[in-house]
Specification:
Largest sheet: 7 strands, antiparallel
Number of strands: 10
Structural class: alpha+beta
Strand content: 5-15%
Helix content: 25-40%
Shape: globular
Distance between the termini: 52 Å
Strand order of the largest sheet: 1-8-9-10-6-7-2
Radius of gyration: 29 Å
């Protein structure tokens, strides 16, 4: 910066001396001389201004500041900038989520769940699978809201503190999530929610949420869980640079319990659950993502499982929820196809600007295999995806317990579709991932 200013000063001085040499003391009498001197001076000033603008932009980029506060659309799967800050110390951001547009023609009785089918032909690759999220699409509600809400209320009555919990150090972040919901949900779903001075009201359930009173009438994550169909988790960074699960509302997870994972760092959550390929393929990238993700860079990912019972909240085929030794080995093998269900999760991740917590929303889509296999291309593609699982993924997803029955059924449905004229060459033009 100082060297560039020296160059500028030298240029100004040299130009002035050149003009002085040409025109002496620059007498004011000749108009042509005055005009030439003025033009030269203005050119220098314009050039200096251009350099100053470039320096300001370069400095702002180095500091990680958004140059355009109105531009909130990520240019990549997440705006992840390397920030020089102390681990465990988050400086609140001034970022504010853009106002959500109402969901077109949304109705609690008739808006169908989106048809997520996040599986592909060919080889199975273990990746984070992140993609950019549009802000309007943060939370997805549909005509399954009454069922999900009823299941959550029942679970809260039966197991509340075991499924919904907030560590003292995470309280502000959990309240920030409540504030975000009370701002976003009435904007996106105005026929379901109405904003109030203290929070919001739910027109369908008759619930009134007061997020300002202290103490709150319930754990803030339990309150947040009653607002949406998603399970919720917030990770916070501690001074060791690790992100810990310190706030959660895990009521409909199916295969895992909050009480087993609460307080764990991100890496241990995955290794304790034997997530395939985590150490060699996912850990480094995931830790870098959490460290660098900014409030203006929300992302999405999808996954899927096969379940051999129809229980949304807890898959009792893998064992009793209160028991030990929960595993696929306890499931009944080769159950009839009517007991096979397709379970898919749509997860969003975003950083809360005030507290710095990273929020997971985990929305489950749950359908009988016999239902989704009627959709064009689905049985053939799903069969191909299941066959592509490696041994570690197959163990993790319990493939041995259902593969014979399921693959035979999917192959048969695929052949039926082909005989009826399904053109396999047209699939890519009809659908795209994750549908």
């Amino acid at each position: 910066m100082e060297s560039r200013c020296g160059i500028i000063q030298e240029l100004v001085y040299t130009t002035h001396q050149h003009l002085k040499h040409c025109y002496g003391t620059l007498p004011p009498r000749p108009k042509s001389v005055l005009w030439m001197y003025t033009v030269s001076t203005l050119a220098i000033v314009a050039w200096l201004a251009l350099i100053a603008i470039r320096l300001v932009k370069k400095y702002a980029l180095r500091r990680g500041k958004a140059l355009d506060p109105e531009n909130t659309t990520p240019k990549s799967p997440a705006r992840t900038r390397t920030l020089e800050r102390t681990s465990g110390l988050w400086i609140p951001s001034a970022f504010k989520r853009p106002r959500a547009q109402p969901y077109p023609n949304w109705d609690v009785y008739s808006t169908k769940p989106l048809p997520y089918r996040p599986f592909k032909y060919g080889s199975y690759h273990i990746t984070m699978g992140l993609r950019t999220m549009k802000w309007d699409d943060w939370i997805e509600l549909d005509d399954q809201f009454p069922k999900f809400h009823a299941d959550k209320i029942r679970r809260i009555k039966e197991r509340g503190p075991r499924c919904c919990k907030t560590a003292p150090e995470a309280f502000d972040g959990a309240v920030e999530l409540l504030e975000e919901f009370c701002d976003y949900l009435p904007q996106r779903y105005p026929s379901l929610y109405r904003k109030t001075p203290v929070g919001m009201d739910n027109h369908f359930t008759g619930e009134s949420f007061n997020i300002l009173e202290r103490p709150l009438i319930e754990d803030p994550m339990q309150m947040a869980g009653r607002m949406v169909q998603d399970d919720l988790a917030i990770m916070f960074e501690r001074p060791d640079g690790q992100y810990y699960l310190l706030a959660g509302s895990i009521l409909l997870a199916g295969f895992w319990r909050l009480e087993d994972k609460f307080g764990m760092p991100l890496s241990e959550i995955h290794t304790s659950g034997d997530v395939p390929g985590f150490k060699p393929k996912l850990e480094k990238g995931m830790m870098n993502f959490f460290r660098r993700v900014q409030p203006d860079g929300p992302v999405l990912r999808n996954n899927y499982f096969i379940q051999v019972d129809d229980n949304l909240a807890w898959s009792d085929s893998i064992g009793d929820e209160d028991g030990n030794g929960i595993a696929w080995g306890t499931a009944e093998k080769d159950k009839s196809i009517e007991h096979h269900w397709f379970r898919s999760e749509r997860q969003s991740l975003r950083r809360l600007p005030r507290s710095g917590g990273v929020v997971f929303t985990i929305r489950t889509y749950f359908h009988p295999i016999t239902e989704i296999a009627e959709q064009p291309y689905v049985p053939g593609r799903l069969a191909s995806a299941i066959r592509s699982w490696g041994d570690d993924v197959s163990r993790y997803k319990g493939k041995e317990m259902y593969q014979d029955v399921l693959l035979e059924y999917l192959d048969r449905k695929h052949q039926e579709q082909v005989k009826e004229g399904l053109d396999l060459a047209k699939e890519d033009g009809i659908r795209s991932y994750p549908y």
